[in-house]
Write a structure and sequence with these properties.
It contains four helices and six strands, in the order H-H-E-E-E-H-E-E-E-H. It has 169 residues and is α+β, with helices and mostly antiparallel strands. The chain has one domain: GAF domain (Beta-Lactamase), CATH 3.30.450. A six-stranded antiparallel β-sheet has the order 3-2-1-6-5-4, with helices on both faces. A hairpin with a 2-residue loop joins strand 1 and strand 2. The chain is globular, with a radius of gyration of 15 Å.
């Protein structure tokens, strides 16, 4: 059984090391992507400071569709290329926004959000299947350390799917 450990008074590096270990423990015994995505969102929601929303948007032919999340109700659909999430999915790269009010075309699902970090979820190294979205009510909440950690967690989440598709499991 998994026991959530909410890190306190750690450096950012130590915090992400702890989250990485906990995330690995959560996904290591489960092959279902949605179950793992839901647990990862919950882990991040409970352990990261100054976060008002964390979730997954899944890429479908018609655009991004809301998946597992923690926080207030959110936009259900986001067109590809629109807002921070749609931009990240279309460009297949992480997008770190220090102040969402300065991001052209920002989609405000929660008016309290001031900064955002969106990381593409990829399988087989470059095929985007969705995005991991983190919002904060604090300007400049996210930096390169956060981005690197979320990119590593996204690889952990999608790695099992990639391995399954390659027949490596």
């Amino acid at each position: 059984m998994f026991h959530l450990q909410i890190p306190k008074n750690l450096s950012k590096t130590e915090l992400y090391r702890s989250l990485g270990e906990q995330a690995h423990a959560l996904v290591s015994g489960e092959l279902d992507f949605m179950a793992n995505a839901a647990n990862l969102c919950s882990l991040l929601w409970h352990c990261l400071p100054d976060i008002n929303w964390v979730g997954i948007y899944r890429l479908k032919p018609e655009g991004l569709v809301l998946g597992p999340f923690q926080g207030k109700p959110a936009c259900t659909r986001i067109p590809l290329g629109k807002g921070v999430c749609g931009t990240s999915a279309r460009q297949n790269k992480s997008v770190l926004v220090p102040d969402v009010r300065k991001f052209p075309g920002h989609i405000a699902c929660d008016s309290a959000t001031r900064s955002e970090l969106v990381v593409p979820l990829r399988i087989c190294e470059d095929l985007v299947i969705g995005v991991l979205d983190l919002d904060s009510p604090v300007e400049n909440r996210f930096d390169a350390v956060d981005q690197e950690a979320m990119e590593a967690l996204s690889r952990l989440l999608t790695g099992r799917v990639s391995n399954l598709l390659k027949g490596d499991l």
